[in-house]
Design goal:
seven-stranded parallel sheet, 7 strands, binds nicotinamide-adenine-dinucleotide
Length: 250
């Protein structure tokens, strides 16, 4: 498939996991990809993988919790590739712990990366996306749809991102802009590998939201994003997609 030929796509979290898989998938479908992350060596690996297989990608360090860096990154993308058709907000962080012990700094960090970052990048991108008849795909989580123990800041940030998506979908309903959100369930990435629970974790609380069909792979999320961001999905607007092996089905 070449659904992204002549399309410029900006992807955050491009150094790892779903963000990297999304860059690879969209580049394989013809996109010119601009990848952002704080992890420069991961970005270099993503770039090498795509370039080695003949794809087009440029990367840049960007801390998405900084409004200034987000606006600069959008400017760089447009300066480099001449346009912007799709924004994919994938970067995210998670910290586990008891709610009554979350520090103000930890709360703000989670909100900064998971919620403020997507907002800043949407703000900077929307004028370009309106001109290019483009679209936005945000990556939230099933943790934004259901309550999950030991990660209140994460749940709140992802629920906020879902509502941000729906609010923008309504606000720009009379334009060509499409805005959607994907909610992955457990997916085998570095984020899952790095999980550290409180010492007194109650397994019964965690097992409630472990899908019976197991985890997915980053490529599963990338293929959902590729569909939603493509013109095939032209009727999809303001939608919340759980890609979670049935985790929130019941
Ligand atoms: N892995 C899962 O099970 C799972 C489930 C649901 C939702 N998600 C969400 O999917 C998205 C991708 O996660 P992943 O599993 O691929 O994790 P990952 O850790 O492999 O990738 C996340 C990327 O975000 C980058 N990042 C972190 N802080 C940043 C910042 N301030 N600015 C720019 N980049 C930053 C990291 O460097 C990393 O490359 C996240 O938003 C995450 O919350 C993951």
């Amino acid at each position: 498939m070449n659904r992204f030929e002549e399309k410029v796509v900006l992807v955050t979290g491009a150094a790892s996991g779903m963000g990297r898989a999304t860059c690879i998938r969209l580049a394989a479908e013809g996109a010119s990809v601009f990848g952002l992350d704080v992890d420069e060596s991961g970005l270099a690996q993503t770039k090498a993988t795509i370039t080695d297989s003949g794809g087009l990608i440029e990367v840049s360090r960007c801390d998405v919790s900084s409004r200034e860096q987000c606006f600069e990154a959008v400017d760089k993308t447009v300066a480099h590739f001449g346009n912007l058709h799709v924004l994919v907000n994938v970067a995210g962080i998670i910290r586990f712990g008891h709610t009554h012990l979350i520090s103000e700094q930890e709360w703000n960090l989670t909100m900064g990366v998971n919620l403020n970052g997507p907002l800043f990048l949407c703000q900077a991108s929307i004028p370009h996306l309106l001109a290019s008849k483009g679209n936005i795909v945000n990556v939230a989580s099933t943790a934004g749809l259901i309550g999950q123990a030991y990660c209140a800041a994460y749940c709140a940030s992802k629920a906020g991102l879902i509502q941000l998506t729906k609010a923008m979908a309504m606000e720009y309903c009379k334009t060509s802009l499409r805005v959607n959100v994907v909610c992955p369930g457990g997916t085998d990435t570095e984020m899952i590998g790095g999980i550290s629970m409180p010492d007194d974790v109650d397994g019964e609380l965690i097992n409630r939201y472990t899908p019976l069909r197991g985890n997915g792979q980053p490529e599963d999320i990338a293929s959902a994003i590729a569909y939603i961001a493509s013109d095939e999905a032209r009727m999809i607007h303001g939608s919340v997609f759980a890609v979670d092996n049935g985790g929130v089905a019941g």
